[in-house]
Write a structure and sequence with these properties.
The chain has eight helices and no strands. It is mainly alpha-helical. It has two domains: 148 residues, no CATH class; 39 residues. Helix 1 runs antiparallel to helix 4, helix 4 runs antiparallel to helix 5 and helix 7 runs antiparallel to helix 8. It is globular.
Length: 190
């Protein structure tokens, strides 16, 4: 039953996650934290962080991680592997199906006024979904009173430093490494 719920949840995320992985984060958070309570907001924030630093799309990485975690909770590590496969396949299936259908017709219809209008209409929605995902990570709406949110003064300082680094075109890999080192110093040593 849990694998079916996992499959249906990630199938929904795959079908309605327009705009890529970051736009899908609010959908993933709703399914994983709010609807099914498979993990907490802080665990979800950890998944986002791990999914960003591992190679590959964030939606697929997070699906694999969530699937493994949920499957492992249902049984052994093998159940975790099965959960990872189910969630990853479910999130990829809609994109694969839609891309096969769309590429067949899009080249003929890309200059159609209706198709162009739909594409222009989806752009602000994608930006809104990405902003929503960021706000959900900063201000979780259903976090337990004792659950530690990742936002504190140090987090804002790190955020500001990375923002300035990005603005000054510092290598993103260097920013990730420096942020990890700062996190170790701030949160584990002090």
């Amino acid at each position: 039953m849990i694998f079916w719920q996992l499959f249906v949840s990630y199938l929904k995320i795959g079908f309605f996650g327009f705009g890529g992985g970051y736009a899908m984060l609010s959908l993933i958070q709703n399914e994983v934290v709010v609807q099914h309570a498979w993990m907490t907001n802080s665990e979800f924030a950890d998944i986002v962080a791990v999914s960003q630093i591992t190679p590959g799309p964030i939606a697929i990485n997070s699906a694999t991680y969530v699937g493994y975690t949920v499957g492992s909770q249902a049984g052994s590590a093998w159940w975790g592997v099965l959960g990872a496969v189910v969630a990853t396949a479910a999130v990829c299936l809609p994109a694969l199906t839609l891309m096969l259908l769309i590429t067949r017709f899009f080249l003929r219809l890309k200059h159609n006024r209706i198709v162009e209008g739909a594409m222009l209409g989806m752009r602000p929605v994608v930006i809104g979904m990405i902003a929503s995902a960021a706000l959900l990570l900063i201000f979780p709406h259903n976090a337990a009173a004792d659950e530690r949110n990742f936002i504190d003064a140090w987090s804002w300082l790190l955020f500001g430093g990375v923002l300035v680094g990005q603005w000054r075109r510092v290598n993103p890999i260097l920013l990730i490494v420096l942020s990890a080192a700062a996190g170790i110093l701030i949160y584990r040593i002090f």
